[in-house]
Amino acid sequence: MGYKIFIKLSLPNATENEREIFCESLVNENWSRITALPTEWKASFEEDVTRERAIKIMHNDLLRAKNESKVKKVEYAMQITHQCALYTTHCAI
User: Fold this and answer.
1) What is the crossing angle of helices 16-28 and 51-69, to 10°?
2) Predicted confidence band at 82 (pLDDT cuts at 50, 70, 90)?
3) What are the residue boundaries of the structural domains of the chain, listed by start?
4) What's the pLDDT at 45?
5) Residue 47 contacts residue 2 (beta carbons within 8 Å)
6) Which of 8, 45, 49, 85 is the most exposed place for a label (fewest CB within 10 A)?
7) pLDDT at residue 93 tops 70
8) In 3D, which of 16, 25, 15, 38 has the Cα closest to residue 65?
9) Tens digit of pLDDT for each residue in 23-70?
């Protein structure tokens, strides 16, 4: 079992169209929205993906979505899990 990342997003002052494009970009990168929590997303990684690589992929996916949607600011809280370990951080890009 590889790493799993959960993110809670905030797109301050983004238009509805920017939000839609942002979300479409995440879906295209194999992120899935947590149904009951519309601002929360998750992704799973293969066993051979390191913690550092999973975080880098997440960051690149968020940056790509930001650039494609023209959202000016992305704030997020992230949790990464691997078996019993849990890591949490809060960032903005």
Assistant:
1) 140
2) confident
3) 4-92
4) 94
5) yes
6) 85
7) no
8) 25
9) 999 999 999 998 878 899 999 999 999 999 999 999 999 999 999 999
d(CA 47, CA 52): 13
Span 74-79, mean pLDDT?
A: 94
CATH 3.30.70 fits 4-92, yes or no: yes
Residue 3 DSSP SS3: coil
The DSSP code for 31 is -
Distances (CA, A) of 33 to 25, 41, 65, 66, 84: 12, 4, 14, 17, 23
* Count of positions (residues) in the chain: 93
**Phi/psi zone of residue 13: left (φ > 0), alpha (ψ -120 to 50 degrees), beta?**
left
